[in-house]
Amino acid sequence: PNRRMIWLIALAIGTAFPIAIIYLLELFRYKIEGRNDLEKLTKLPVLGDVPVSNGTKNGTHNIVVSENSNDLMAETFRGIRTNLQFILDSPDKKIIQFTSSTAGEGKTFVSSNLAVSMALLGKKVLLVGLDIRKPRLAEMFDLADRRKGITLFLSGDANNRTGLFEQIMPSGVNENLDILPAGIIPPNPAELLSRKNLDRAMDYLKEVYDYIILDTAPVGLVTDTLIISRVTDATVYI
To answer: Taking the model in full, what pTM does it have?
Structure first.
């Protein structure tokens, strides 16, 4: 036997085999698994990376940002907040909607904690629950009145400015953050969001708040978010 030839063949096989396995795994990979995938596939700006959190702070479920906090989650949302402020390069740009492909990807978690982070800057912030098919803000902030919400205004008189502000509640987390939850789940969400009441509501709210953050439905499942986008200045995709 040619000893040198056997060693060269073994070395070639030992090198080629793992390369082939890695190539096949990469070839059949169909999930977006990190920031590099996003940067390869799109030219959209990446605001930040949010780690998974199962923690609870201040007795409020899933609110992980608090004043004078310097942990990983607080710094993560500070970074996203800073990048988002660069995108909203005008004081007139106030309305930001948060969406994702499907349910359970963290849009309510991210939008809620970013709203708290912005409120810590001393800005007047309103978090609006426009996922009116499956609302979660009332649960997230443990709001006492689950019947109050923006759907009452959307289904009523568009000129009733007082009626809109009556639906707003304090967050209980920061004095600069208010919550306008979804309210009662309507039978016709898409039609309700298409009415001029939504445009009028945003006009009223922009007079009072520095930032208006909209927690919307998953764009991959329903058309609600596309309908809402007519009144927004930026869309954050989780």
So the answer is: 0.82
